[in-house]
Amino acid sequence: MRSDMIFTLAAMAALLAAGLYGYLGDEPFFLTLAAKAAIFALAGAGLNIALGYGGLVSLGHAAFFGIGGYAAGILASHARNYEPLMSWPVELAGTTSAPLIWIVAMLAAGLFSLPMGLLSLRTGGVYFIMITLAFAQMLYYFAVSWPAYGGEDGLSFYVRNELGGLSTMDPWSWFLICYAILAVALVFIAVLTRSRFGLALTMARENPLRLGNIGVAPRRVLLTAFVISAIVTGLAGALYADLNRFVSPSMLSWHMSGEIMVFVILGGVGRLGGPVAGACVFILLEQVLGGFTEYWQFLLGVALIVIVLMGSGGLAGLFERTGVRKAAAHG
Amino acid sequence: MSPLLTVEKVEAAYGVSPALFGVSLSVGEGEAVALMGRNGMGKTTMVKTICGLLPRTAGRVEVAGRDTKGLAPHRVARLGIGLVPEGRRCFAPLTVEENLITAARPGHWDFSTVSELFPRLAERRRQTARTLSGGEQQMLAIGRALMTNPRLLILDEATEGLAPAIRQEIWRSLHKLKTEGLAILVIDKSLTELSTLVDRYVIIEKGEDVWKGKPAELTAEIAARHLGVAG
């Protein structure tokens, strides 16, 4: 537990240092990468609630990421074109207010995850993976074939949404916003996993029948975790749309689900700081290896295999084991 | 008043293989009953059926006057059944305290009263369950069931495979629970210890109850015939 805390703080410090380097060195591209890492970390942190703590291997989290993205894109594009979202029974206008967009994105992702979770949790194991994948693919093809918001071409909206008086188009401010949201989300997850609900979630992963025997409904615990997980990933999707000022069906594709899962597995399943480390390393590999070869993902695959073979817990797990060894050597 | 637990002519099956062929038993308020039988005779199956882990194919199970047909395990637990499962099954990665508080429901039993019953649990409160000895895990499993403040405690082989000193500690705690008025259904093989704890025996064989009576009525001949031991 303590090693998890240290690892989380270290990963967050590294991300902040990367941002600071970009700010002081006046490298806006670097800052944008750091913001992207923070957003990916948030998406991974969301998935980690279901995957890491609840043992729910969801290959459908791109659905929530994309819903968050489209919520941001649709609201913003309506506001910029002065078109109401709907005119009956009440007139509802779009908005460019970021907090409002975040809330809508989280609500939309949460609402979609409820029936999806209800149905998916009737299955388990490989079937759970396949049914969550199927839900996300359904949404992907819907987005591709729905012309109102750009269909396959996606939807761009030129300017980031507004947050108070902050200049969201300034890369440093934008990075800090994403970083702050990630920090708040991690604190929330840390509190959640230490609560009675979090303990019950661990028990539901370990042995759902025994959890039932002590009077707690395992499926309800898992469903709640799945919805919370979707909400966090949905928020990340809204931020990602704002980062690029563009949203497209690719945010909903299974590649995206896979990538979010890679952040978690690379960094450490069920470790608070795992997704942060995973997302940072992913972006780093993408930039460094991507500079050498177009086929950098081949090398990412090799790295992933090595990390998985070295034992559970990804980078966080490695950190724990070296920590234990050092403590043993000193003690 | 109806008994706390009524089991009437219950039949149950694992898939297509029937395992229980009509077992009846009952446990009243404050009563202790032992469920006995040789290995593979259906004792654990009976417990699973009572707790809603295995659907029954015929018969009735009533907990506090309520039929448990179709109830999920957590619903049955909330009717007042605390199960100490065979093989203990504590939640290994969680600490002693975490194992206990997650199960907590309001009532007499809380962390401090459970610690009084098993002082070792309080000593090891921050240790994860996987680092406990077998006996300590058994105490934790009993403590976890008590934290739900049950009206009936079911123990499935709670003293199996434990050191004699620990077994005596478990038996002492069960005596204490009984004098406090908790109803107990216990599955065990130690006749000597059971005879001073329980009010009645129920012996099952091949999925049917074959003998019921008070401990004093269990003759050596019956024990040898149904349990394969010298009483």
Features:
heterodimer, A: 331 residues, mainly alpha, ABC transporter involved in vitamin B12 uptake, BtuC, two-stranded antiparallel sheet, 74% helix, globular, B: 231 residues
Explain what you see.
The complex is a heterodimer of chains A (331) and B (231). Chain A has helices spanning 2-24, 28-53, 61-80, 98-120, 125-145, 171-194, 196-206, 208-213, 218-244, 254-267, 274-292, 296-309, 314-330, and strands spanning 84-86, 92-93, 155-156, 246-247. Chain A has one domain (2-330): ABC transporter involved in vitamin B12 uptake, BtuC. Chain A is mainly α and 331 residues long. Chain A has a two-stranded antiparallel ribbon with strand order 1-2. A two-stranded antiparallel ribbon of chain A has the order 3-4. Chain A is globular and about 65 Å long. Chain A starts with a helix and ends with a helix. The longest helix of chain A has 27 residues, at 218-244. In chain A, α3 (61-80) crosses α10 (254-267). With 231 residues, chain B is of the alpha/beta class. Chain B has a domain at 1-78 and 183-231: P-loop containing nucleotide triphosphate hydrolases (Rossmann fold, 3-Layer(aba) Sandwich), CATH 3.40.50. In chain B, 34% of the residues lie in helices and 27% in strands. Chain B has nine helices and ten strands. Chain B has helices spanning 43-50, 73-78, 96-103, 111-117, 119-123, 134-147, 164-179, 191-197, 220-226; strands at 5-14, 17-27, 32-36, 56-63, 66-67, 81-84, 152-156, 183-187, 200-205, 208-213. In chain B, the strands form two sheets. A six-stranded mixed beta sheet of chain B has the order 6-7-8-3-9-10, sandwiched between helices. In chain B, β1 and β2 form a beta hairpin. In chain B, α3 (96-103) packs parallel to α6 (134-147). Chains A and B meet through α7 and α8 of A and α2, α3 and α6 of B.
